[in-house]
Amino acid sequence: xxxxxxxxxxxxxxxxxxxxxxxxxxxxxxxxxxxxxxxxxxxxxxxxxxxxxxxxxxxxxxxxxxxxxxxxxxxxxxxxxxxxxxxxxxxxxxxxxxxxxxxxxxxxxxxxxxxxxxxxxxxxxxxxxxxxxxxxxxxxxxxxxxxxxxxxxxxxxxxxxxxxxxxxxxxxxxxxxxxxxxxxxxxxxxxxxxxxxxxxxxxxxxxxxxxxxxxxxxxxxxxxxxxxxxxxxxxxxxxxxxxxxxxxxxxxxxxxxxxxxxxxxxxxxxxxxxxxxxxxxxxxxxxxxxxxxxxxxxxxxxxxxxxxxxxxxxxxxxxxxx
Length: 322
Ligand code: DP6
Description:
This protein is of the alpha+beta class.
């Protein structure tokens, strides 16, 4: 039996990944930039066992079958091919953040899986190779392999489509205050969403403009220019949701409270409390600010009627073996 145990953080995108130029290989239509979320993590133990007739997946103590197991098996299959092995694996995974909290668990999950599975078979992949492998399970997982502030370049082909750090976690002490909002409907998953992004007439413009947004966001992070950072991340999030809303079928992830938080954050910022919002494929609002403002931002978010809880996370490190 060969096993390894790895930990990875989820991440929040500042320039979003939405739509693929190749859904099978998860080659994105545009590059993206994110920050890993410290304190939140998935821990995964992978053990390859000669006696297993098929792969097994256990998440938070529950055995998982169907589509989620298939997705894990696809990544394990890539690892088996690289290692020249035929053994099946038992994958045991635990998240320390609530699954129903609307924080994408697939990024942390597939980053931890890629690292644990390759180490369990004795493979020592480079960071970019691991990022490419994690990408095959979930696109955003490519960004949970490196640490701190991360850019996932779209590349020209499978080989150069990976993520790398643009700044370490201690470069800028940022906090993501996640305002949890109750979803009214079961949401459409990201994978289905990526597949219909191209049906929106706005997606072409969004993709064509991505290099501009990436450059502004990258520079704002490197210079720690919060005002420029705030403007670009809100703009990018709004653009992605404009595409979602105008896809066929339309995807409307926002609730009334989601929009109320946007207005509140902009009012606070105009009055001197530096904070900015961004939203993924759900109704929760990520309000990003510098550490010094985090206590106040959290307190104000909690006061808004309709906000259930607020989870806060600083800037996290890379995926690692534990
Ligand atoms: C809105 O990485 O979850 O969070 O590749 O199908 O697993 P799959 O999609 P996923 O998409 C993330 C979408 C997003 C934006 C982002 O994180 O960049």
